[in-house]
Design goal:
182 residues
């Protein structure tokens, strides 16, 4: 699994073959198939680890109290999510891409991976935002987190470095969780 994720960090998902992974770990494709049905199976298994680690990383945020700390609380949340995802960025990119293609197993895995973030944001927006509006805003933020994760290793993007992009996302999170009901 580690070798596959390392390859995903340097090559497009569809360019990775079982023989490449086997070669990387010094074994045969037959050995690979003893553990996984295909490359997709490895990515889906890696996504389970991502869900577990994301859930753990957000443990201190589940009650929504972080939102009362203003921008500082939102910044802590953004850092927790993106730092937690940092070891899983290749997996997040594949999940996002294949979920966008409506590949059912990857849609489910994408929702599982982003679910802990969705829960934390939903809890924080409940007191200030009507339900339907809250769902829309939270969905947009979760999508923003996934997009930000895809650019974490990109250096400068549109003249903004990684920390500036994170701060922009924190400002959006802060704005959403402090929006008053109209």
């Amino acid at each position: 699994m580690d070798a596959t994720v390392e390859l995903l960090a340097t090559r497009p998902y569809r360019d990775i073959k079982v023989v490449d992974v086997a070669r990387e770990v010094g074994t045969s494709p037959a050995t690979f198939y003893q553990y996984f049905p295909d490359i997709e199976g490895v990515v889906l298994e890696a996504s389970r680890l991502l869900v577990k680690e994301t859930t753990a990383a957000l443990g201190d945020f589940t009650d929504g109290s972080w939102s009362s700390d203003g921008l500082a609380g939102a910044t802590r949340l953004v850092e927790a999510v993106l730092d937690g995802w940092s070891n899983h960025l290749p997996v997040m990119r594949v999940l996002s891409a294949l979920a966008a293609e409506r590949e059912p197993r990857f849609v489910k895995a994408y929702y599982a991976a982003t679910g802990p973030v969705l829960k934390v944001l939903t809890k924080a927006t409940e007191p200030t935002t009507p339900s339907a509006e809250s769902k829309e805003l939270v969905h947009a933020l979760v999508t923003g987190f996934a997009a930000a994760a895809g650019q974490e290793d990109a250096g400068n993007v549109r003249g903004l470095n990684k920390q500036q992009r994170r701060q922009g996302l924190a400002r959006l999170v802060h704005a959403v969780v402090t929006t008053s009901a109209a």
